[in-house]
Every structure is written in structure tokens, then in C-alpha cells.
What we know:
The protein has 11 helices and 23 strands. By secondary structure, the protein is α+β, with helices and mostly antiparallel strands. α1 (about 10-15) packs across α3 (about 110-125) and α9 (about 405-415) crosses α11. The chain is elongated. β4 (about 95-100) and β5 (about 100-105) form a beta hairpin. It binds zinc ion. The site of zinc ion has 5 residues, from α3.
Amino acid sequence: MVEHLEPEPFWAHFTQLTKIARPSRHEEPVIAHVTAWAAERGLRLRSDSTRNLVIDVPATPGREDAPMVVLQGHLDMVCERQPDSPNDPTEGRIELLRDGDWLTADGTTLGADDGVAIAAMMALVEDEQAPHGPLQLLMTVAEEVGLEGANGLDGSLLDGKILVNLDSEEDRKLTVGCAGSTDSWVRAPASRAPLDPSSVALSVTAEGGLGGHSGMQIQLGRANAIKYLGRALREVGAQVPLRLASLDGGKSRNAIPRDATAVIAVAAGDAERVRELLAQSEATIRDEYAKTDPDVSLVAADSEPPADAWTAAATDELLDVVALIPTGPLALSPDFDGLVETSTSLGEAITEGDVLTLHSLTRSSNDAAMPGVLGTLEAAARRAGGEVEFKHNYGGWRPNLDSPALAALRVAYDRSFDDTPIVTAVHAGLETAVIGDKVANLDMISFGPQIESPHSPDERVSIPTVERFWTLLVGFVDELSQPTNGHAR
Ligand SMILES: [Zn+2]
């Protein structure tokens, strides 16, 4: 399938990897494969307690004084398959298919994410025509399950001051930053009491929105179901007494919530008026999102009356907290047009007993911007007599456009290609952010070939961009280790 493809040693390693099982947390077969390969070449290999691997590679002759460079990628892959496929990546059964300029797998994920990194590292070490300074190959485990490997990395194994991550999925793109993140849970306890026997219950559901990734798509103006449901109930509650019995919505901290449901209790005589007021709020909300999320809706339906509900005062307090929790982009990148630097997304609402929990994920590439946003969440919790719990995930990777690694990469790029690279950052988490948290002052950069539909059986990699990726990697480690290169010192 990959015969006659260039660079041949890269494709040989890549093909071998497709025959070795490497699901996240079960990387033993591929660890054994890489360990045997390193031993055969007399390369020192160390691993930490999380099973990440670090392989020391001496410089090629004449490049010994160059700065040490860490090349990094992850060993694991997402193992998805079509239910009727005879192939199964969890058993090392991936069947390569060629479709013009694309390489894909028959009925399964391909594992180009991030097999291209591992194959490129191995091929580079073997290539006697590719000069480089001292290298460290960092191969992490369990990237695809919440960056677990990077989280458990023993940073003391790394001596390099430059790190090249090979897990990007867009040709031409040089990534120089990403967002760090903190989870927060605002927990507001509030008094509940039995319902008046004369009251009726309505369930109100917010649905029909587009949702999306809570970082990468936070600037697209998509409606947050929890937020607009809370807003509508607050507007109704300003006109007619109502009591909130429950508010639940969102399925993941990582996604903009598309659905949320509240159960409310109102006096039987007010039910019709409440439906009218909800329809009025819905009309305004639909107008607000007419261009960005046109199908958002609020659906009211009769519901079994619950045993109890929050009191009228507690209801006001809780709907105020929902109103106060910010959601959406908060600051734009000073370096890149249209890129969000800081955002927060209310991802889940959970009713448990008398406590309403609101779970948000706040992201920024600028660590110094985080305390301000987290303070807002804390203030909202305190206003409701509740408290907030924070979980710092990892700091941001703040773009440095004066980075020596970027300068060298641009030189290598210009030397090999006619087009101009796109230097950018992403508003999402990458392994580099976690690694940067563990190793001080790392100059980092990330690039890779064009990979589409990763994590799905449609995953495919563009063959010509693999050759570009390889050329860039070889040119970059050469440039960084040039004895005459000022910025490599
Ligand atoms: Zn990956």
C-alpha cells in the first residue's frame, strides 16, 4: 500500500505501527516495539512511572554543541471501528487503503494521530543524511484520554530547552500557543419547601441549538441552553411568581450545552400566562441568535408536580446565579486576528437535593488572565450563599512570536517551500501546555501533516503533506544545529 511512497523509511515505520495495538492506557505492545528499536541502536531509553518514554539520541558528527531539542508525540491512538468491519485497531489490525493522495484505513481509525510523530522520530534517527544536534524523543502515553500521560510526565527526564510537538493536523500551520484550563463547580444550596397543593408544574426545555466545542467554537455566537433557559425563567419570574424545582442540562464540560430542562411550579391560574411569557422570551432569544444559532427553542409541557421545590426567594437567588455565571469569549488574542485568548463556558447544571451545581470550564493562553475570571465565578457563588471548587488542569502555552525555535522553523520552511506558513495558536488544550507546566522555559512549537477526521473511521492523512512534514522536520533540526547559526546558540 505504501510501497514507492516517499520518504520510504518513514512509511515503513508507519506501516509497522499499524500492526501494533496501541489503545490509550494499553500501550505495552508499542512500548515494547520502541524499546527494542532503541536497544538495537544502543540508544538510552528511560521511562517514568506513567510509562512515558524518553530516548536520548546523540548529535550527528560536528553538531555536538548544538542545543538539545526534544521531539514529542504520543504513542496511543483512538481505536474506533465500523461495527461490521473485520479490522480492529485494539488488536493491531488496521488495513491501509490508498485513495488518490490520501491514505486511510478500511473501517477503522488510521492512527496517523499520532503515528506520524512516532514514525518520523524513528526515521529521523536512522537517516544518516539528516544532521541534527543532540535530541530527546519524548513519546507520551494516554494522550487521547485527557492528556493523562503528559499529566504524569516526570519533567526531570527532559534536558532540552526547545520542544517540537508533532501532533498538529494541518499542513502549513505552525502552532505556537494554546489555552490552559481550570474547571469550576459553583455549588449553591438553597431552601426548599413542599408545593402548595393548588400549584401546577411545567417542564421547560431549551433545545435545538448547535452546541460545539466549548473552546474552539466559543466565539461563534452559539446559544448556551442552560444560560438562555435561566434567562427566560428569570424574565417570567419577574412577572409571575414561580418556584424552581430543578434545573439540569449539558452533557460535558467540553461542549456548549444544547439541551437543558427546568421543572417549575406556578399557581394553577398563572399557567397560561407563564406559557405566554415563555413564548415572548423565546421570540427575543431566537431573534438574538437569528444569524448564529437559528433553531434554538423553548418548549413548555405539563409535568407531574414534584414533591417540593426551592422557595420563591431561593428561586430568585438561583436564577440570579445562573445569570451571573459568564459564558462565551472574554478576551481576544493580541497576537492573532480572531483568536480567542480567554473564554469561559458553563457546561453543566445539576440539581441534587437542595443544591444547584453549575460546572464551567475556563480557558486562557494567558495564565495571568485566569484569576479575574475565576474571581467572577467565586463572587457569583458567594452572592448565592454557596461556594466554588476549582480544579486547575494546566497552565496556558502563551505565544512567543520572538521565539528562536519559531525563527529557525521559518528559515527551514522558506528554504523548502514556496508558500508562506500560517503561524497561529489554538483555543483548546494540547499536550504542550501540560509539558510546559512541568519544564520551565521550554521554547515550544507544533506542526504536522494534514490529517482529517481523526478519532473516527474516516481518519485520513494526506500523503503529499507527509512528505512536506518530513522535509520541514529534517530542515528544522538541521537549521537548529548549524554551527554558524546565531539563534541556535
Ligand atoms: Zn493526537
